[in-house]
Design goal:
Blueprint lengths: L5 E10 L4 E11 L4 E5 L6 H8 L7 E6 L2 E2 H7 L4 E5 L12 H6 L11 H10 L16 H13 L5 E5 L7 H14 L4 E5 L3 H7 L2 E6 L2 E4 L12 H15 L2
Parallel strand pairs: 3-8, 3-9, 6-7, 7-8
Antiparallel strand pairs: 1-2, 1-4, 4-5, 9-10
Helix pairs in contact: 5-6
């Protein structure tokens, strides 16, 4: 039997003194190639879970397997196999570097140095005009700079891409263009799309994960979302609708 692409068992994580539990015996399985939305109220641990799955932090307890292998071993065998795009695109790029220098950072370390053709192909993939190759971050719009961050993240052709509130800082038209881009370029990548925006998650993701009190409380398919009777999901849906009605 083929193991899940990503499997988390009994994940626990606490912070502070006295310790405050953020994740409690969390269980999660993701298949290869899907787009999964991760939603929940502010402070529920969405970004903490992402950092654990990326290997940026270690859990207090529990295990994370990638294709049946311990996370650390899988990462060592798949350099560039995981990547992330953060919300704060303005501070996630070196301000003194050009677009092409920023993109070059995303290629696997130790591999051949990317040439102009490689960088142009990457820019084409995220619909970024080649004329911007020598521009600095302050010369770009927010949507353009986030495209640079996405291009850098996919340069190594990762199998797993985490998008942590990756569109929430953009204005509405730029959000829509980035979401369309993410849907178009996914290919066989597995996405974990962390957001507070249910509409964005529904647009991009086939299945939604709802994090509540440190555990995955529900994981409805997109088509069943608005028919669910799960009280945690209903509460988030109702709050989102109230917010929209209020302008």
């Amino acid at each position: 039997m083929t193991p899940p692409f990503l499997e988390a068992r009994g994940l626990c994580k606490s912070y502070g003194r006295p310790p405050r539990a953020v994740l409690r015996d969390l269980e999660l399985e993701l298949p290869r190639g899907g787009a999964w939305g991760l939603l929940g109220e502010s402070g529920c641990g969405k970004s903490t879970l992402a950092r654990l799955l990326l290997g940026l932090e270690a859990p207090d307890a529990g295990t994370i397997l990638m294709e049946g292998q311990p996370l650390r071993r899988w990462r060592a065998r798949h350099p560039g196999g995981m990547s992330v795009v953060f919300q704060d695109y303005t501070t996630s790029v070196p301000p003194q570097c050009s677009v092409e220098e920023i993109l070059a950072e995303g290629f696997p370390p130790g591999g051949p140095r990317p040439g102009a053709g490689d960088l142009h192909a990457l820019m084409d993939r995220v619909s970024l005009p080649r004329a911007l190759a020598r521009k600095r971050p302050h010369e770009l719009s927010g949507g353009q700079l986030q495209r640079v961050c996405i291009a850098r993240a996919i340069a190594a052709r990762p199998a797993f891409l985490v998008l942590d509130e990756a569109v929430s800082s953009l204005d509405t038209p730029a959000q829509a263009r980035i979401l369309e881009l993410l849907r178009d370029i996914r290919g066989d990548m597995t996405y974990l799309f962390i957001t507070h925006d249910i509409q964005a998650a529904v647009f991009l993701c086939e299945r939604l994960l709802f994090l509540h009190q440190g555990r995955i409380a529900a994981s409805p398919p997109r088509e069943d979302l608005f028919r669910t009777t799960n009280p945690i999901v209903r509460d988030l849906l109702d709050n989102a609708l109230v917010f929209e009605d209020g302008g």
